[in-house]
Write a structure and sequence with these properties.
By secondary structure, the protein is mainly beta.
Length: about 525
């Protein structure tokens, strides 16, 4: 039988192709995200070239890249016409065809975080290409650490920016890009190199919108002294702080949504005074908020609909009268009462109401210790909404409390519903104490604060220190605490952040280098030489 060889050849070729197709390995979909930033592997001309006269720079990277945000690319000193900068595959190309760098000048092209992986967008940060058109490179540099002004914690990814003093104005920060800049690393360290002999102002800020300009809502820091790069070669540390949410003493909102109740939401209530001008507005309370925002509540004894009340507002800048009218069809605020148990042995049981009380029939209050009915040792009116009830402070005692309905009458004629509760005095054995032997021989007073070693940093004790003394802090919850000292410049008993617009620095803060661990029924003694702390 005669075999057709051409047919056999075709058959073998098709079979081989099918086997190859079946054996071909296809990478699976997905996989871990590539979070490794691109790396520079070389450049033409080389970085830090002297006598530069090229018309084009090529920077090679280890992967395909893109220019993510060209606005972050800053050339120092600024050029009248920027060169053309573009991404081409695995390289950045910089072309000077339409302009020419000045002679005998060191240029730094800082890319910020603009060079990014083309797929995942991971950015190369703090990369700079430097060249000199003269015989040498400017070799001055500055470095330092970025910390938060209050907590003194190092901060990463903070822009440190330098602006020449010779052309610095009030609008420079908002309108101009920095002449030189860098970003702090994981340890809060930064370094800016290849600086000329000149004087600069230095700032730091969290660049939340990546435009390399200081915005009003961005945390920032600065020093007011000029930096001379030829002389200031040591560490220049910067303290960054959250800006004020509003101008201190601002009324954020004022309203009367409930009948006979007028409210002022304020920022930094200590910087504003609000006075009721109508005699029917007789009571006021403060509802504490967070981040400096508190609410001042005023109460009227008249329950008319759409009643208006006048208030005098006194701020640092002005004095004016504000008229607030109650919302149409407003309802009375609800009247609620509750027993508030003390948090420490020195505190007292309290009866607290939501709005001021006109009177209380204490004969309708029943207190039992076990099954035995007892009378309070004393009852004191602490505020329009608070009464203190003093009971025997016996360790292990347990009290049952009962206040019958209609025992309390509010200033608006409302009555309470029946209230029941329990109370057990806390023992001093559940708390600890800290005894500080403070050595201080200077004349400038400092604010000493004991703060919880937690994210909230709650202040549990404060006092003014102006000389050596023994300080005993009792009834502390078992926990870990920090001791800090504040240079209370304006003598208002608290730390104040800076104000960039007015170039007011945040008040200086210093920490004792060891935390204090408080245990129940223990006294912790600690000697502190304040002058040694102030050196850091």
């Amino acid at each position: 039988m005669k075999i057709n060889l051409s047919f056999i050849h075709i058959y073998l070729i098709i079979s081989a192709l099918l086997l190859t197709s079946c054996a071909q390995q296809v990478p699976p979909n997905g996989g871990p995200k590539d979070e490794i930033a691109p790396k520079v592997i070389g450049s033409r001309p080389e970085n830090k070239t002297l006598n530069f006269d090229a018309k084009k720079i090529s920077i090679q990277l280890d992967e395909y890249i893109q220019i993510k945000d060209a606005s972050q690319i800053v050339i120092s000193p600024p050029m009248k016409d920027k060169p053309t900068i573009s991404a081409n595959g695995k390289q950045i190309e910089i072309e000077f065809y339409n302009n020419k760098p000045k002679s005998n000048t060191t240029y730094t092209i800082n890319f910020g975080a603009s060079i990014a992986d083309i797929h995942e967008g991971s950015s190369l940060t703090n990369y700079s290409y430097v060249f000199s058109t003269g015989e040498y490179l400017d070799s001055n540099s500055i470095s330092g650490v970025i910390e938060t002004a209050l907590e003194r914690k190092v901060q990463k990814d903070v822009v440190v920016a330098m602006y020449k003093c010779s052309n610095f104005t009030d609008s420079t920060l908002a309108k101009e890009l920095p002449g030189y800049f860098a970003k702090s690393n994981e340890d809060g360290n930064y370094k800016i190199e290849n600086l000329p002999n000149d004087s600069f102002y230095i700032f730091c800020f969290k660049d939340l919108n990546s435009n390399l300009k200081v915005e009003p809502n961005e945390p920032c820091g600065f020093i007011n002294e000029k930096i001379n790069t030829a002389l200031d070669s040591g560490k220049i540390n910067l303290r960054i702080y959250e800006p004020h949410t509003y101008k201190p003493g601002t009324i954020v909102e004022s309203f009367s949504k409930q009948k006979s109740k007028y409210q002022f939401v304020t920022y930094d209530l200590s910087k504003i005074k609000i006075e009721a001008l109508d005699t029917f507005v007789k009571y006021s309370t403060i509802s504490a908020g967070i981040n400096g925002i508190d609410t001042l509540n005023y109460f009227s004894t008249i329950k008319e609909d759409t009643l208006s009340a006048k208030f005098r507002i006194i701020t640092l800048d002005s004095t004016y009268v504000l008229n607030i009218k109650t919302k149409v069809k407003a309802k009375l605020p609800s009247f609620k009462i509750e027993f508030e148990n003390p948090k420490r042995p020195t505190d007292t049981l309290a009866l607290v109401s939501s709005i001021p009380m006109e009177n209380i029939d204490w004969n309708r209050l029943t207190i039992k210790r076990d099954t035995l009915e007892i009378k309070p040792k004393s009852i004191h009116n602490y505020s329009p909404t608070t009464w203190k009830i003093v009971l025997p402070n016996e360790e292990g005692a347990f009290f049952q409390l009962s206040l019958k309905d209609s025992s309390c009458k509010s200033i608006l004629g409302q009555y309470n519903v029946a209230l029941n509760g329990t109370y057990s005095p806390r023992s001093e054995k559940d708390f600890g104490s800290v005894i500080l032997d403070l050595n201080y021989s200077d004349t400038e007073p400092f604010l000493l604060e004991l703060v919880e070693d937690k994210e909230s940093g709650k202040v549990v004790y404060s006092t003014i220190v102006s000389k050596s003394k023994l300080i005993e802090i009792k009834n502390l919850e078992p926990s870990t605490y920090k001791i800090r000292f504040i240079k209370d410049t304006n003598k208002n008993g608290k730390w104040d952040r800076g104000i960039l617009k007015d170039r007011i620095l945040p008040e200086q803060v210093y920490y004792f280098n060891n935390t204090i661990t408080v245990k129940a029924y223990w006294d912790i003694e600690q000697s502190i030489d304040l002058l040694k702390i102030l050196i850091y």
